[in-house]
Design goal:
The complex is a heterodimer of chains A (about 160) and B (about 200).
Chain A lengths: L1 H6 L15 H30 L9 H5 L3 E3 L2 H5 L16 E4 L5 E3 H8 L17 H28 L1
Antiparallel strand pairs in A: 1-2, 2-3
Helix pairs in contact in A: 2-6
Chain B lengths: L2 H16 L1 H4 L3 E5 L6 E7 L10 E7 L10 E4 L30 H13 L9 H9 L1 H16 L6 H12 L4 H10 L4 H9 L1
Antiparallel strand pairs in B: 1-2, 2-3, 3-4
Helix pairs in contact in B: 4-5, 6-7, 7-8
Classes of the chains: A mainly alpha (about 160), B alpha+beta (about 200).
The structure holds zinc ion (2 copies).
One zinc ion binds next to strand 3 of chain A.
Chain lengths: ~160, ~200
């Protein structure tokens, strides 16, 4: 940021007891620069994370899959004629199913087979936790990057919007 | 073939055959044998693209582990596109690799391939030569893609100037497709294509 002050021949408020009228704007510009810098760091980290998992997401956490509640299809819900999106067979009474947090429902055997391979819902890609520390780290960074994107947008709107 | 894979393909097959897209001649699936592990697909080139008016045939192989793993798909019809090999027909598309999801079907795969024809991703290429031309000389790329569509997929547009260049290489003893491929990769520069074929 030094170059910003050099280029604009500013002294960074040095020696002025009174807050200058444009100081809050400067602070906000500085804040934006900090956010941008952090974002760039995050991108580098997530690229590395991505490489380490070779593009394909890891299986869902064993514990999380075990803890998914089994739901038996009731006569009433069997009548709705809904089908399992994995095997494409309609649910019938007494079928054992599991419902993911995104509310998508599958036969237990179908979804458990899938989650042993990839951690996301086959319909909407809602992600379940995994047992892969690298992948979890990358996900945290991604979530933070998203949060920053939101902050930047808010900041940008407050300045120019 | 496992029961789930075969049972699912049977269901999907019905789904595609009944779909609106088939009615509109947009996509098609046919069985190769009665074991359901190999199919032939067909997609129409999307309108307002260099592939418009062409019909593109696909080889679809169903793995034992389907639908937990994606079908293995390649173009049988020769095509000039950054994400499809002009030599082997191999496809670079995320949903056929690490972005596959078990709820996807033959229908969604065929529609995604059609979307790929309408919107190439030159930064994630399968064919580096085509991708470079796409980015650096887009009008030549479009003309070449349209020419390939006409020759191999039954598209409408013919280019006598391109045909005559191919003819002159043929009279030098080169095979037609080889001549077309060389000219296409060398931006239809006859001299550079000849040099390339000789070396
Ligand atoms: Zn199922
Ligand atoms: Zn879902």
């Amino acid at each position: 940021m030094a170059s910003y002050f050099d280029e604009h021949d500013m002294s960074n408020g040095e020696g002025s007891a009174q807050p200058r009228p444009d100081q809050s704007l400067l602070l906000r510009i500085l804040e934006m620069a900090r956010l941008l810098q952090e974002e760039m760091d995050v991108e580098i980290v997530s690229d590395l994370g991505f490489m380490s998992v070779s593009g394909k997401a890891p299986p869902a956490s064993k514990k999380v899959v075990e803890e998914l509640e089994t739901k038996l299809i009731s006569p009433a819900s069997a009548c709705l004629g809904k089908q399992c999106a994995i095997c494409l067979v309609s649910f019938v009474e007494e079928d054992e199913t599991k419902v993911l947090p995104c509310n998508h429902q599958f036969h237990s055997v179908c979804i458990v087979t899938w989650l042993k391979q990839v951690n996301s819902c086959p319909i909407c890609r809602y992600e379940l936790p995994t047992d892969d520390p690298n992948y979890e780290e990358m996900r945290k960074h991604k979530a933070r990057a998203k949060q920053r994107e939101y902050e930047q947008e808010t900041l940008h709107n407050s300045m120019f919007g | 073939m496992t029961n789930i894979a075969e049972a699912r393909i049977r269901r999907e097959f019905k789904e595609v055959v009944k779909s609106d897209e088939v009615a509109a001649c947009n996509i098609k699936v046919e069985l190769v044998n009665d074991t359901f592990n190999e199919l032939r697909g067909e997609i129409a080139g999307p309108p307002d693209t260099p592939y418009a008016g062409g019909q593109f045939h696909l080889e679809i192989k169903i793995p034992e582990t389907y639908p937990f793993n994606p079908p293995i798909v390649k173009f049988l019809t020769k095509i000039w596109h950054p994400n499809i090999s002009s030599v082997t027909g191999a496809i670079c598309l995320d949903i056929l690799k690490d972005q596959w999801a078990a709820a996807m079907t033959l229908r969604t795969v065929l529609l995604s391939l059609q979307a790929l024809l309408a919107a190439a991703e030159p930064d994630d290429p399968q064919d580096a030569v085509v991708a470079q031309q796409y980015k650096e000389n887009h009008s030549i790329f479009e003309k070449t893609a349209r020419h390939w569509t006409a020759v191999y997929a039954g598209g409408p547009k013919s280019y006598p100037d391109l045909d005559s260049k191919i003819l002159s290489l043929k009279t030098m003893g080169f095979e037609e497709h080889q001549a077309r491929a060389a000219l296409s990769s060398k931006g239809w520069d006859l001299e550079r294509a000849t040099e390339y074929l000789i070396n």
